Amino acid sequence: MINLPTDVLRSFVAVAETGGVTSAGEVVGRTQPAVTQQIQKLEALTGTALFRRAGRTLVLTAAGETLLGYARQMLLLNDEALSRLADTALDGVVRVGLPNDFAVSLLPEILGAFAEAHPKVRLEVGCDLSVSLLTALARGRHDLVIALRPSDLPERVAGRIATAQVWSERLVWAGPRRFRPVPGEPVPLIVYPEGCLYRARITAALDQAGLGWRVAYESPSLEGLRAAVEAGLGVTAISERTLPRALHRPGAGAGLPGLADVTAGLFHRPGQLEGPALALINHVIGRLDAVA
Q: Which domains are seen in the chain, by residue range?
């Protein structure tokens, strides 16, 4: 039976996330030739090419994309196992960052279950826009972040974070029960502040459909958005997974365009995780997989 060495997988993940062998070597503490040799070894073990060159950057092939998800989970489990063997009683602090709407759905279902199972671990949870959370993670202010990943994330941020898992979130419209746009009038929007990926998806969809829009209400909190929707001030969009029960999805007669999906992920700083944070990451992955 073929075994995939964890040190080789660690270099593979580093190349996938940095786009280059030299930069990956800086992450894992190996020379460029050593990392190149490890990638060649991994391709020989798997019997397939894992990267292709696009200009000066290495990008994953379809096989490489498939392996990446497994590699991340194998490394996290490996690191957690070693941490648990060294200290069987999980104890410490994990600083977690979440978008507002994710906090409402994930706190009781996932983080609450972890806190109950590990009473000695103290969770410190902060909520913000995804881009702010990822920036704070890169600066060491969080240990773990669940966030939407924008396509234009600055390199100074992207280069300092690692991805444990990614998935797609379907966006849906939410509004008053009998919402109908007024012909000839701009669509009234209820949105998070500038920088929110949901807001960008909403305005892009309306612009592409040739529909005018105006910001009727802006709030940094999900509770604020929900109150404005319930008051009939306009419509918003939110992840289908986190749609509050009090909000309604406008029917086809509302004439609202479809919304592009967003990419969400579980992020951490490479090489900075300790026992409690590793355990939490694997707990979150397990619960998300179960829901999926």
A: 6-67 (1.10.10.10), 90-166+263-291 (3.40.190.10), 171-260 (3.40.190.10)
